[in-house]
Each structure stands twice: as C-alpha cells, then as structure tokens.
Amino acid sequence: MREKTEALLRGKAVVVFGASSGIGAAAARTFAREGASVLLAARREELLAEICDKIEADGSDASYVVADVVSASAVRHVMRTAVDRYGRLDCAFNNAGVGGNPEPLHEMDDSVYDRIVDTNVRGLWNCLREEIATMLPTGGGAIVNNSSVGGLVAIPTAAPYVASKHAVIGFTRAAAAEYARHGIRVNAVAPGSTRTEITDEWYASTPGLQDEIHAATPQGRTADPAEIAEAAAWLLSDRASYVTGAVLPVDGGFVIR
C-alpha cells in the first residue's frame, strides 16, 4: 500500500500577495492545506477576512494584512508582520497584478499604462526586494512570481500587460541568478486563461474572445485558479529544491501551439 505523501509546505511560513481573489485566494487555501501557515496580503480587507475565516475553520493557520504592493512601506509592514508572527519568512507568492480591457496600443491613455506597470512591475520590485532582505538572515527561502503566458508570447491589444509580464520573468531570472548561492530560489508560473477578475473583464468586454482563446488552447478550456496554485505550491516546496530561474507555463498547452 502506498504511503501517504507528506504535505508539500508543512511547517513553512508563507506570504501570499494579491490574496483576496482568484489565483491568490486559491493559493492561500492550497498552501494552508499543504501544511503552511499563511499570511495573506491585499487591498480588500473584507475578502481577506472571509478567506482567513474559511482557512482557519479547516484547522489551518491564517492571518492577513491590508496592503497595496505599489507602496514599499506597506510591503515592508507585511514582512515585519510575518517575522513578528512566525520568526521568519520561508516562502512568498507574488500574485498581485492588474490587467486592462483589450485596446489598440495607439489608442491607450497613459493612465492605463501607469496603472498596469505600477502594480505589475513596481509592485513586484517592492515585494522581491523586501522578501529577499527578510530571507537572507535566516538562510534563504523560495519565491514564486505570477507572470502569464503574456510574458512568453505576444497578445494583441494588451501591450502594457504583456510588457509588464515579460518584466516579471526578467525579475525572476535576475533574482534567481543573484541569490541562488544565498539559498533563495526564485521561479515563476505563467498561467494561461484562468477564471479570474482580469479574464472576466476581458471576456465581458470582447465578445467571442473566450471561444477564440479556447480554440487556441490544446486542452480547450479555461483553468481553475486552484490549478495554478498547485503548480506554485510545488515550486515553493523543498521537492523543487534544484529548480530556480524557471518559468513554468500552466496553460493547457497554449504556448506550445
């Protein structure tokens, strides 16, 4: 009889940014099920409190901090909270991100670019810098950044989003190379079409887009956020101990088509 597999993240202290919905909320629940103590961070307190209540009702340890990743001081506060609560930070999932409605590049307003790049690029910069500084004194840890298939291929009418997700991959590889010898692994997941607020906005604003994407995806469907969370959990776990600087497409085969 096969022995029960030990939980992937048992005993780990994990921070999840962008944890109030979609992939981030699914990640918080998945990581807790896999034995982690999770600290959720996002802007919407009501949603964070609801998710934490459900995790704790299942017998796992969860708490939250209201924070906007665009603010470096807010991210530092999340790190201090993690250290105060757990004594260290073992893992982090940088999921905070925004999209935008499909629109031709030459018609986009500066505010669209500013909103996307501030959150997806500056926000990641803030998180990575503080996470690495927090992990170094305790011997290292693991970080997973949420990119997108838009970080691997071009998506028309989404130029700032595509540029920002390519930047996520650049940050991932640069940080992985710089800190591997310090015991810090940095990887990324690149989700394809996934049921989140961003894709809901895109599908609602562009009739036929969902069918078009499904037709371009070998598995022919949209992912559940939990499927992305499972991939992130493995990358954060010690079972991926020799994996760093990797970008894992979780996309139903979209980028190989």
From TrEMBL:
Q: Does the keyword Oxidoreductase apply?
A: yes
Q: What GO terms are given for molecular function?
A: oxidoreductase activity
Judging by the UniProt lineage, the source's domain of life is Bacteria
E.C. numbers:
1.1.1.-
Question: PROSITE patterns of this UniProt entry?
Answer: ADH_SHORT
The protein's matches in NCBIfam families, at most eight in alphabetical order, are given as: PRK07231.1
What the entry lists under Pfam families is as follows: adh_short_C2 (PF13561)
Q: Which EC class does it fall in?
A: oxidoreductase
Kindly give the PANTHER family that the UniProt entry links to this protein.
SHORT-CHAIN DEHYDROGENASES/REDUCTASES FAMILY MEMBER
**This protein is called what?**
SDR family NAD(P)-dependent oxidoreductase
Instruction: Give the protein family.
Output: Belongs to the short-chain dehydrogenases/reductases (SDR) family.
Q: Which InterPro entries does the record cross-reference, listed alphabetically?
A: NAD(P)-bd_dom_sf (IPR036291), Sc_DH/Rdtase_CS (IPR020904), SDR_fam (IPR002347)
Keyword terms of this UniProt record: Oxidoreductase
